[in-house]
Design brief:
- The protein is α+β, with helices and mostly antiparallel strands.
- The chain has a single domain, classed as RutC-like (60s Ribosomal Protein L30, Chain: A), CATH 3.30.1330.
- It is 24% helix and 30% strand.
- The strands form two sheets. Strands 3-6-4-5 form a four-stranded mixed β-sheet. Strands 1-2 form a two-stranded antiparallel ribbon.
- The radius of gyration is 15 Å and the shape is globular.
Length: 135
């Protein structure tokens, strides 16, 4: 595995992710921001943040698998949420929890959560992009 996740001394421990990832692989993989489109190009979970988060992670998993990777290879996650307010955190975590359970995700790489005014189309509430490192 090309990624080691750590929480260095002197930084707070965050339950949702590790503060640092150390990559030792040789192939960088940049996954475009994934929105809640199903394989047919139709939005999954319109109006439902949790359902859209889950679909985004499913799409990321498919992208990783398509290049021979998995979530174990993810070095960094960035999540963009439309009109972010802290009261949306339970829905975001619900969708993430479902994705983790269905896909067997065990790592918690460093992550950034960024509130945005809008995404590509009005029905998309969230977009997830990742950087991965493969051996």
């Amino acid at each position: 595995m090309a990624i080691t996740l750590v929480n260095p001394n002197g930084l707070p421990v965050i339950d949702a992710y590790r503060q640092v990832s150390v990559a030792t692989g040789s192939k960088l993989v940049f996954i475009a921001g994934q929105v809640a489109w199903g394989p047919d190009g139709v939005t999954v979970g319109e109006g439902d943040l949790a359902a859209q988060v889950e679909q985004c992670y499913h799409n990321v998993g498919a992208a990783l698998a398509g290049v021979g990777g998995s979530f174990d290879d993810v070095a960094k996650v960035t999540v963009y949420v439309v009109d972010w307010t802290p009261d949306k955190m339970p829905s975001l975590m619900e969708g993430l929890g479902r994705a983790v359970a269905k896909q067997g995700i065990t790592g918690a790489p460093p992550a950034s959560l960024i509130g945005v005014a809008a995404l590509d189309v009005p029905e998309h509430l969230v977009e997830v992009e990742v950087t991965a490192v493969l051996d």
